[in-house]
Amino acid sequence: MDNGKEDIDYPGEIIEAVDREEQERRSIQEYIFQLEEAKDTATEQVKTQEENLQETVSLLQATLESTADGILVIDLAGRIVSYNQKFAKMWRLPDEVLKSHDDARALGWLSQQLKNPQVFLHRVKELYERPHEQSLDILEFIDGRIFERFTQAQYLGDRIVGRVWSFRDITERRRAEEVLKQSEQRLKLALSAANRGWYDVNVQTGEAMVSEEYARMLGYEPEKFSETADKCIARLHPDDREAVATAYHAYLKGELPEYRIEFRQQTKSGDWLWTLSMGSIVEWDADGKPRRMLGTHTDISQRKRVEEALRESERQLAQLIDFLPDAMFAIDRQGKIIIWNRAIEEMTGVKADSILNEDGHAYTIPFYGIRRPALIDLALANDPDIEKKYLFIKREGDILEAEAEVILKGENRLLYAKARPLYDSQGNVIGAVEAIRDITERQQAEEERAKLEARMREVQKLESLGVLAGGIAHDFNNLLMGIMGNADLAQLSLSPASPAIPYLQEITRASQRAADLCNQMLAYSGKGRFLVRRYNLSEIVREMARMLEVSISKKAMLNYRLADALPAVEADATQLRQIIMNLIINASEALNDQNGVITLSTGVMDCDRRYLSESYLDDNLAEGRYVFLKVSDSGAGIDEETRQRIFDPFFTTKFTGRGLGLAAVLGIVRGHRGAIRVGSEPDRGTTFTILLPAVLSSREEMTTDAVLCPTPLQGGTVLLVDDDPGVRQVGVRMLRSLGFSVLTAADGQQALELVQAQGDDIDCVLLDLTMPRMGGEETFVKLRALRSNIPVILSSSYNEQDVVQHFYRGGLAGFIQKPYSLTKLREILSEALSMRKH
Questions:
Q1: C-alpha to C-alpha distance for 121 and 118, rounded to whole angstroms
Q2: First CA to last CA distance, the chain
Q3: How far is Cα 510 from Cα 525, in angstroms, rounded to an integer?
Q4: pLDDT digits (tens, 9 = 90+) for 493-535
Q5: How far is CA 68 from CA 111, 166, 579, in A?
Q6: Selecting from 3.30.70.100, 3.30.470.20, 3.30.450.20, 3.40.50.450, what CATH number does the domain 324-438 have?
Q7: Which positions ≥6 away from 617 have C-beta within 8 Å?
Q8: What is the Cα–Cα distance from 647 to 111, expressed in whole angstroms?
């Protein structure tokens, strides 16, 4: 016995019973353990199944929520079993309706949103009554939405436990379908309106399908038209077949990026239709060879007609641009030359073929020799640096104007240019154009015109002053006629020893000086030519040599360069001498009492319009041969301001003198249809050149100043015709003192009446030139008609060349200038009466 216990010896039956009991207990415990294990296993399996179920439910719910459709599940009792949020959102159901799980309540809410709620509810009722039936319907909402509804029975095994409803919002799809439908309709209309049809061809077999528009385009009814590649080739214009075949096969081989070609094909009516064909390979076979080609055929006949019209318009425009007198060129937006007309070819010598399509400012090379921006570039963009290169520049809107000096073909030229942008039909700038005009001649012409206008103003001034001077001289000479005539008569009535004689002689001398002054005024007015004959200008100078030498300063040396055998000039010798004397005296005074040289030259020269236009008194003088007289001095010269006024009457730079010397020269030259040129340089002297028309005819010999020997007066009757009473009064006295009987007339009409009445008794007529009612010229003509044998002496303060020449051609017996002395009157009467006797 262990542990202090006493060992007890039990009987065998007890021991066996205990063992059996122990075994049973152990068996029970083992069974309980197995039950526990089975319980644990079952519990674990249930838990796993629950988890799997939850996972499945979760997956189903996630799937339900992730679908784009709204899902609703209704059991057979009409209760909402399940739904997803998409359904609630699509149908806009309140939470309380959904949470009620009442399908009838939900249907009432849903039907309120539909266009046809009764139809909707009726169909739902039918489907509930037919649980096995499936249905696909379209629901249209009041707000424009459209749902597609699908429903079918819900099965649990073979048993129907409810109905599943699926709703899909197809609003956008329907709209897209409608848009697509409209687009297809528009495409069809567009293809029809654009005369365009499509084709679908099997490039391996040649079989083809075409649109109705394509058939109609060719004039066929679509249902009766069939197409193949061979038929298409047969319709092609013979001239286009090779080009079409080349382009088609090149595209199929991949040598061209696209198939695009224009050709003509024959329509049903036999006309030729211009067609634009475009296509693309859309299908290849297993070997990679093209099988199917889609494309379009477009009727471009109208475009071709427009293009031809455009080409014709461009040809006409090109001809018009070439016809324009202004040089013109144009560039595109990139600066490439697109127009270069014929005028600019002629201006620059550069042909269009050599410069068109050039860029980089190539258009400036002919003008400046370099590439540089020009006015045309300013039309596209402002650039102050370019503007500085022009003499003148102006901008008005988008138009620019400028002037520039350039060298063209080796000559300096002044160019005027105008530039502006070029626009397309939308108003976008696509380039610029510049027109150029050579205004060199115009500028010169304007300068010449300015000079001419200045000369015209000078001529008008001279003319006005001349008219004034001539009028004053005429009236003053008539007054002097009375003074001189009466002084002469007074001397005749007095004894030579009378103390009044010296006073009367002084009156006569003063009157003569006044008459000389009037003659200078008449010379300035151009109305002082009284005795015009033909003279050799060199001979007149030689005759005056001694007089000229004593008239100049003792410090001046006079040189002569006189031409021999000069053509004659028609002139008044006295006035020629006055010209020479005035110019010589003027040259002497220009030396300012210093040593110097005066040169007097004569000669002949041919003068053109340009040379004559640069002279004074260029009154459209005729080109031709002129005899010239030059007087040059070595004085200080004259400045421009003085030169502008040297011919003004009463203008002088000297302390003494009346200032009529050069003014008289100008008037005399003008009266002789000549011209004056003045050249002067500071410190190099001045040269006056007188030009007088040369007489080329030799029908008349040149004359000298020889006169007929006067015949002693033997009395007779003189008809004195003058409108001035004072002249008539003194004239009567002077004629009577010479032993003549006198008849008087105040005008030409009275004179004719006297000649008709007493013509046989009249020995001579002293006729005034200027009278009222009937002037001297008309009176002279009518007198000659009445009595051609009566000598007529013309009397006037001035005269004009044409009138004098006319009188000479008509047989004028003589001329006497007012105021005249008794001695001069005796001489002219003696000459006239001598001519009558001869």
A1: 5
A2: 226
A3: 23
A4: 888 888 888 888 888 888 777 776 666 666 655 555 556 788 9
A5: 22, 10, 125
A6: 3.30.450.20
A7: 459, 462, 666, 669, 670, 674, 675, 676
A8: 120
